[in-house]
Known about the structure:
Elements: E1 3-5, H1 15-25, E2 35-39, E3 47-52, E4 56-61, E5 64-69, H2 70-74, H3 103-107, E6 113-115
Antiparallel strand pairs: 1-6, 2-3, 3-4, 4-5
Amino acid sequence: MRVKIKPLECTGCALCELVCGYHWDEAFSLISSSIMLHRAEEKKNYMGLMVKTGEDLFLGRPEGAGAVKLGDLQKGGGGGASAKPILIREACDMCESAGLEPQCVAVCPQGALYVE
Ligand code: SF4
Ligand code: SF4
């Protein structure tokens, strides 16, 4: 079971990133968040989400969704430069350490995140 993304449903509100940061640091900070919103500066209205686990990064972008192994990312494949900041963040624990249901899924107003 893991958090997955329906990228075309996402409006880029960043609530998921904020609530995950709160899960890890008990503060509204993004530095530890396991989920990250990326907006491309060069393409208007282009955005994507990434969820880091211990083994891989699940990417949800307009062109599709799927997992890329962390080892492949560190060798430069898959997520591109936008994936680098999330590699130093916490790996998703499905909010189990807080005894909660996945908080990013619970707060998403669009239903763009789900567990499968
Ligand atoms: S399930 Fe919890 S730890 Fe995982 S990305 Fe969502 S908020 Fe973060
Ligand atoms: S909370 Fe939902 S709509 Fe907002 S950025 Fe996250 S996935 Fe997208």
